[in-house]
Design brief:
Helix content is about 60%, strand content about 0%. With about 210 residues, the protein is an all-alpha fold. It has two domains: about 5-115, Fumarate Reductase Iron-sulfur Protein, Chain B, domain 2; about 115-205, no CATH class. The longest helix is centred in the last third of the chain and has 22 residues, at about 190-210. The structure holds iron/sulfur cluster (2 copies). One iron/sulfur cluster binds near residues 35, 38, 56 and 93.
Length: about 210
Amino acid sequence: MSDLNQQMAARYQNNFLKEIEEQAEMGEWVKMCMQCGLCSGSCPTHFQDAWDHAPHEIFMLIRAGKRDEVLQSQGMWMCTSCYNCYVRCPRKVPVTHLMHGIAEYAYRLGRSPKAQTTQHLSKTFWDNCTETGRVNEVKLTRTLYFKDGFVAGIKKAIAMQSAAFGLVKARRMNPLEAIGIAHKCKDIKGIHAMLAKAKELEARHKAEKA
Ligand code: SF4
Ligand code: SF4
C-alpha cells in the first residue's frame, strides 16, 4: 500500500463513507442517495462490460465500507460526463462529479486500476496540452497509438492513415508538430505560472483536508 493509502486507511478505520465525504470532491453527497437506480438506468454507457459497478452500486458499496472494491473499480473511469444522471436524480446528487471525484481519489491513493485507459488518456492529454498551452495533435496521437508497443502503434497508424492524410489535406493537422514545430500560446510562461499557482492552491486545499 502507498504511504497515503496506509495513512488514510488507518485514519478512517473502516469508516469508508466518512473517508469519501472528507477526501473525494463532493463526497458529502453520497449519503443522499436513496438507491432508486435512476442514475444507472439513465447512463448511456453503464451496460458496457468495463462498468464493473454502475453509479448507484458504487454509492452503496461506499456505504457498505467496501473500500478496496470501490477504489479498484473501473466504474468511475467509464463516465463520459454526459450529465444524464445528474439532471435526473430525484435527490439532486451530483453523480457526474462524484464519479470523477472518487476516481481522482483512487488515483491519488495509488489504488486505481493499472493501465486504465481513461486514466492514461487523461494524463497523456494533460501533459500534452500543458506543455505549450495548446494540444499537439500529432504527439498526442503518437503517444496513444504506441502505448501498447511499437507493433501495435504501427498497425494503428496504418489503419488510420487515410484519416490522417485527410486531416493534413484539410489543414486540420500539421505534420511538423511531430518535431515540435507546433502552434503555441503566446505567453507560455504566463500559462505555466498560472498552472503552478493552481497546483499550489489545490495541494494546500488537499493538505487542509488530510
Ligand atoms: S438517481 Fe440519485 S438517488 Fe437514485 S440511485 Fe442515483 S444517485 Fe441515488
Ligand atoms: S454522467 Fe457519467 S455516470 Fe452519469 S449518466 Fe453520464 S456517463 Fe453515466
